[in-house]
Design a protein that fits this description.
The complex is a heterodimer of chains A (20) and B (192). Chain A is mostly helical. Chain A contains one helix and no strands. In chain A, 5% of the residues are buried. Classes of the chains: A mainly alpha (20), B alpha+beta (192).
Chain lengths: 20, 192
């Protein structure tokens, strides 16, 4: 399955704290 | 429940691993010596970790470039994946550095890492931003300049993603034409 992401999905992660 | 936890705590993989390169113009060194690999990433989270850590393009000094290419492709015409290809080129006026440059570059990055060109994303090699005193440039590089369907689809989607009006025309130039140009302008192979 191709990993295709739209901009809104990608932007949702911009300020998310990194997972450890 | 387990699936939910996996979704919540796993990083989101990208289709490709990407390499960020930085070029700083030092006239005492060769072009290749001035080009440095910064790092590679292959998840959405690691992309943002990198993006938020590095200098915004608009803050770089003239003569610098960022290049983001698929792992294994070097950001130069000579690479075998680039040499038959070309680029969709966005040329910016000087004043746009302060108004649109960073937004255009981020949209460009999201387009390529998100594989937003439907069935033609495999044609994409990478993206480049050149910071120059006479006007900055942003481009998406693709691997095959003769692939009219792929190139024009990528150009149309890219133009839409940047929010450019239908009155604005952007051009695609084959690297072979850029390398052998005689004047300062390279002819456009395609426009959208």
């Amino acid at each position: 399955e191709k990993k295709q992401y739209d901009r809104e999905f990608l932007l949702d992660f911009q300020f998310m704290p990194a997972c450890i | 429940r387990e699936e939910e936890a996996v979704e919540r705590y796993s990083k989101h993989p990208l289709q490709n691993r990407w390499a960020l390169w930085f070029f700083k113009n030092d006239k005492s060194k060769t072009w290749q010596e001035n080009l440095r690999l910064v790092t590679k990433f292959d998840t959405v989270e690691d992309f943002w970790a990198l993006y938020t850590h590095i200098q915004l393009a608009s803050k770089l000094t003239s003569g610098c470039d960022y290049s983001l290419f698929k792992d294994g492709i070097e950001p130069m015409w000579e690479d075998r994946r680039n040499k038959c290809g070309g680029r969709w080129l966005i040329t910016l006026a000087k004043q746009q550095r302060h108004t649109e440059l960073d937004r255009f570059w981020l949209e460009t990055l999201l387009c390529v890492i998100g594989e937003m060109f439907d069935g033609y994303s495999d044609e994409v090699c990478g993206a480049v931003i050149n910071i120059r005193a006479k006007g900055d440039k942003i481009a998406i590089w693709t691997q095959e300049a003769e692939n009219r369907d792929g190139v024009t689809h990528i150009g149309r989607v890219y133009k839409e993603r940047l929010g450019l009006s239908s009155k604005v025309v952007i051009g695609y130039q084959a690297h072979a034409d850029t390398a052998t140009k005689s004047g300062s302008l390279t002819k456009n192979k395609f426009v959208v």
